[in-house]
Amino acid sequence: MFVYSLAGLQVDGEALQEMELPDNEITARTGVYQLLARMVSVPDEDAYSAAVGGEWGGRLAGAATLLGFPFAFGNASIESSVSREDFQAEFLRAFEIGVGEGPPAPLYGGTYGDNRMQRLEEVVRFYEYFGLTTSAEDPRPADHLATELEFMKYLTYKEAVSPSPRLRTSYRRAQQDFLDRQLVGWLPKLAAKTREAKTTPYWEWVVDTVAGFGAADAAYVSSALVA
Fold first, then answer.
1. How many folded domains does the chain comprise?
2. What distance lies between CA 179 and its chain's CA centroid?
3. CATH number at residue 169
4. What pLDDT does 19 receive?
5. In whole angstroms, what is the distance from residue 25 CA to residue 66 CA?
6. How far apart, in Å, are the Cα atoms of 89 and each of 31, 85, 98, 179?
7. How many other β-carbons are positioned within 10 Å of the β-carbon of residue 128?
8. Which of the four pLDDT bands, split at 50, 70 and 90, describes residue 15?
């Protein structure tokens, strides 16, 4: 059974409690999005230990066992000589804070367009339509990559638990719309910025994996709706 929880977003003002879901091709996508969101959040002790042990590729492959399309996640690790503090500091330098003029590869989708405020408003409207708001306990901008991946996790979860084919199709169309309009378009730009930031191969792998999976999942969702 897949254990579902929601981080970074809340439903009607309350955090969604953990619950078990059956293992199938829908919840495989839910599981992958949950892991990807963790990987692009400020790393905690578990994230650091998994990076040192080279565990993230295996965790992703395990979550994706029943995935409805092939995807090679690959793997990467960091040297055990890298401290947790240095690991976190590099994440913050490359993606969150930077030095001087901000991060060289920001994880905020709105920074890759002409009008970030407009994009923030669009993303918030997506969330609000489904009764979601950003979490006060886990404050991140609405256009943060981790938050957008959490939203995809939520939409796939809702598809998995919907009682009727009509509702499942509705959530699948919402996924297609969000992937095409908000998420997939800026991920290649983030990947390019990450390479330019001259960060570690581990973080390049993380961003490349997110970008690659987002594109593959978008193609899968579109083909499933046409079929």
1. 1
2. 11
3. 1.10.3480.10
4. 61
5. 5
6. 27, 6, 9, 30
7. 11
8. very low
Tens of pLDDT, residues 183-193: 999 999 999 99
Structure tokens, 159: 């598809």
Q: In the chain, what is the straight-line distance between the N-terminal and C-terminal CA atoms, in Å?
A: 28
CA 190 to CA 182: how far, in whole Å? 13
Element (H, E) at 118: helix 116-129
pLDDT digits (tens, 9 = 90+) for 49-59: 999 999 999 99
pLDDT, average across residues 88-105: 91
Instruction: Write the DSSP symbol of residue 71.
Output: -
For tokens 């404050």, the residue is: 139
Question: Which of 142, 139, 74, 60 is closest to 108 using CA atoms?
Answer: 142
Residue-level pLDDT at 18: 57
Calpha distance 55→185 (Å, rounded) = 28
Q: Is the dihedral of CA 127, 129, 130, 131 positive or negative?
A: positive
Domain of residue 73 covers 2-226
Q: At what angle do helices 116-129 and 145-161 cross, to 10 degrees?
A: 20
State mean pLDDT over 106-120.
93
Give ∠ CA 11-50-141 in degrees, rounded to 5: 35
